[in-house]
Amino acid sequence: MSEGRLVGRTALITGAADGIGEGMARRFAKEGAAVLVVDFDAQKGTATAQTLLAMGAQSAFFQCDVTEKDQVQAAVADCVARFGSIDVLVNNAYRGTGASRVETKSDAVFADCMDMCLYAAKWSMEAAFPHMRARHWGRIINIASLNGVNAHMGTAEYNAGKEALRAYTRTAAREWAGYGVCANIICPAAATASYRRFKEMEPEVAAATAAANPMGRMGDPEEDVAPVALFLASEDARYLTGNTLYVDGGGHINGVPWVPDLGPDS
Ligand SMILES: NC(=O)c1ccc[n+]([C@@H]2O[C@H](COP(=O)([O-])OP(=O)(O)OC[C@H]3O[C@@H](n4cnc5c(N)ncnc54)[C@H](O)[C@@H]3O)[C@@H](O)[C@H]2O)c1
Questions:
Q1: 194 alpha carbon to ligand 1 midpoint, in Å?
Q2: Which member of 31, 45, 138, 242 has the lowest number of beta carbons within 10 Å of its beta carbon?
Q3: pLDDT at residue 2, as a whole number
Q4: End-to-end Cα separation, the chain, in angstroms
Q5: Which tops the pLDDT comparison, 266 or 89?
Q6: Residues whose beta carbon lies within 6 Å of some atom of ligand 1
Q7: pLDDT digit string (tens) for 230-253?
Q8: In this predicted model, what pLDDT tens digit does every residue of 126-169 receive, in sequence order?
C-alpha cells in the first residue's frame, strides 16, 4: 500500500481477532500499516490476518495468551523480526471475569485480571520500548474502561486493573516523552461480542445504558472507535500523550446506569 496515514508503520494489536481489536486492525491496515494480529484465539486470529492480507496489507497472526509474560515478549519479538520494527503497540485483549460483589472477589480472580489488564501491557511496553527509543518514534494505545473511571458495580477486579493500567500508561507517557514515544488511553463503548453477551445477561441494564448514551447507541468498533486509535497512532498525535480519550458517544458525561443484580447480601 502506498497511501495512508500509517504507511511504513508497523503495529502490534492484542485481542485483534475480534471486536474493537479487529476493528483497529482493519483500519490500521487500510491506512498502510503492517499489522501483527495477536490473540489467543487461533481460528479467529488467523482469519483476521487473512482478511488484512486480502486487503493488500502486510499482516500475520501470532498466537499469544497475554497473561503469559514469555508469550507477550515473544509477540513483540515476532513483530520486530517479521516487520523490522514495532511502531504502534495496542494493548486491547480482555476476557470477562464475571460480576459479583466486592467482598466475594478471590485473590485468584484479582491476580488473573491484573495479569490481563495491567501486566500484559507492562510486559509488552517493556519489550517494545527499546525498539521505539532506538527509532525515536512510538505510539502506545492502551484500552481501559469507563467501568474503572466510574466504579461500576460488580467488576471490582476489572475496574482496579483498568485504572492501574491508566496510571501506568500516564507514568510511561511522562518518562518516555523525551524518546519520541506517546502513550494514551482509550475508554471505548462498542457493540462487540462481549457487549452482546452482557446484553443477554443483563438486558435491562444494557437497554438503560444505550438509552442514557447521548448518541443513543453503542459504537461500531471499526467506524467509531478505530478512527480515534488511528489518530493516536499517526503523526498527527505527536504532541498528545498521557491522555484518556472517551470514545463512547458521550456516555461518560453523565455516566451509565450500571447497577447489575448481584444477588443477596452475603
Ligand atoms: N466493548 C465495549 O463497549 C468496551 C467498553 C469498555 C472497555 N472495553 C475494552 O475494550 C477492549 C476490547 O473489548 P471488546 O469488547 O472488543 O472485546 P471482545 O471480547 O470482542 O474481544 C476481545 C479479544 O481479546 C481476545 N483475548 C481475550 N483474552 C485474551 C488473552 N488472555 N490473550 C490473548 N487474547 C485474548 C479474545 O479472543 C478477543 O479476540 C477490552 O480491553 C475491553 O476491556 C470494551
A1: 7
A2: 242
A3: 64
A4: 58
A5: 89
A6: 14-15, 17-21, 39-41, 44, 64-67, 92-95, 116, 143, 145, 188-190, 192-195
A7: 999 999 999 999 999 999 999 999
A8: 999 999 999 999 999 999 999 999 999 999 999 999 999 999 99
Reading the block at residue 101, the C-alpha cell is 460483589
The arithmetic mean of pLDDT across residues 72-76, rounded, is: 98
What Rg, from alpha-carbon coordinates, does the chain have? 18
Placement of cell 527499546 in the chain: 130
Which of 24, 94, 218 for a ligand 1 pocket mutation test, highest count of atoms within 8 Å of Cβ? 94
pTM (predicted TM-score): 0.97
Residue 246 CA, distance from chain mean position = 13
Q: Separation of 2 CA from ligand 1 center, angstroms?
A: 31
Closest C-alpha to 2, from 43, 30, 36: 30
Give the three cell numbers for residue 57. Answer: 496489507
Q: Could you give the CA distance from residue 68 to residue 33 in angstroms, rounded to a whole number?
A: 26
- φ, ψ for residue 105 (rounded to 5)? -75, 120
- Give me the phi and psi of 238, to 5 degrees please: -70, -20
pLDDT tens column, 196-208: 887 888 788 788 8
Residue 83 half-sphere exposure toward CB, CA atoms < 13 A? 28
Secondary structure percentages of the chain, helix, strand, coil, to 5: 55, 15, 30
Alpha-carbon span 28 to 49, nearest angstrom: 12
pLDDT of residue 1: 62
Q: Which atom of ligand 1 is closest in space to residue 16's alpha carbon?
A: 39
Query: Among 20, 27, 197, which is best to mutate for testing ligand 1, by the most ligand atoms less than 8 A from CB?
Result: 20
Helix (H, G, I), strand (E, B) or coil at 183: strand
> What's the chain's length in residues?
266
